[in-house]
Hints:
This protein has 481 residues and is mainly beta. The chain has two helices and 33 strands.
Amino acid sequence: MFKHHYGKFLTCVLLVFLVAACTSEPIQPTPNPTATAQSTQTPEPTQTDTPAPTSPPFILPRTEALQPENQAYIRVVHAAPTLERSDVYVEMLLVADNMTFQQNTSSIGIEAGTYVIRLTPSGTQPLEAAIAEETVTIEGGDNLILLITSVEEQFIIETVQEVVAPLRANESRVTFIHAVPRGTDFVVEESGSEITPQLTFGQTSPDVVRTQGNASFILQSGDQTLQRINTQLEAQNNYTFILVGSDTQGLEIVSFNTRAAGITRFRAINASPDIGLVSFFAGQTQLDEAGLDFSDAGVRILMPSGSHTIDVYPIDADRTIVQPLVSSQVNATADFDLSIVLTGTADDLRIIAISEDNNPTAPNESRIVFLNTLPTTPQVFLESRAISTIATYGEASEAYSFSSEPTSIYWSNLDANEEIGDLIESADEYPLQPGTRYLYLFAARGVDFPLIYEDFVGILDQDNPEDSLLVTQEAFPQDSE
């Protein structure tokens, strides 16, 4: 029974499969869909809020530069008679507060850079309501005057370089500025002579160097005297006089003075016999014209007194990529000369700075400074009729006074027990001249070939010592400015 029904069931299943196989169509592969253009609507733009304006960067300039070569100075002068009380900002640094016409600030330190200078009503912030603004680039070493004035009823900020160059002991310097819009042109006269060219609005006169003391200046326009300036000029001071105001409401003088550095005359000397041709630099100033070989001395170069870095390079070296052979810091004393002497061997160079007195000598006297330049002879015995002493390598002696007459000087070996040995060098019957200063460098050059450098400094007039000083200053026509 079970087998019978099971056979029927298999027969039915086979019939179903046979019918399906005979009637179904073959299966076709599915084609890739064809891209068809479809009509779409452009979406509405998304509404976004407008960003708030970005505030200018907050800049507060340094008043003391990180690097000395980037140090600069500014001062503000209010030269606009119709301008109310106002403040002046360098970026966010307040440099002048509540200024009125004819006022000026002292000199203010600032680091070199490019800044926006803003003039604002007194008591307001620099970004709120600027009356005038100017972008100014300040370079290291600048001494800028920020001059507040006006053109065509518009207030402006002008920049003028303040002259602060070094001066000699008895000198003063004066400079004049025309800061009167539409003002009358003028010249400056002293003792009936014109000391400046004609100045128009915005112009600065060439600086005038004169002897310290009482001074009377007249600002003259044709037959009209605009202003008279009677003042006492102090030594080594730079004076600036600014004509301000208006031709209709009256003219005034704004003045200020700045202490000037003293002057030191530098001279480079190559006393290293095996280093060859080299160049000396004080900062960026070259102290020789075309390099110095052994025993060569450069001309004297006028430099401001104070601290200086001295670098010595091989001749024609590219200082941007080549390190100096030797470098040293020296201090230059105002109104003294400074000899910068290179000594030593190629692998052990030394710079010796010798400060030299410019005062005149007594009548019939000369002055000598000695220097032992040989590292191989650390001590040598120095002897003459006037002195006998030990000269140590690299140490300049004091300035000795000698009678102005032929003089013999002897340098002898000195052993470890300070026993005097053989003669190494001598200058026999050297003709010393009155009023002359000498620098004698011991270099073991034998007999009659000494390295001696001389300068005439003048002879003291004991009855009129001031006249002696003038003679001294006139004795240096070879100075390089």
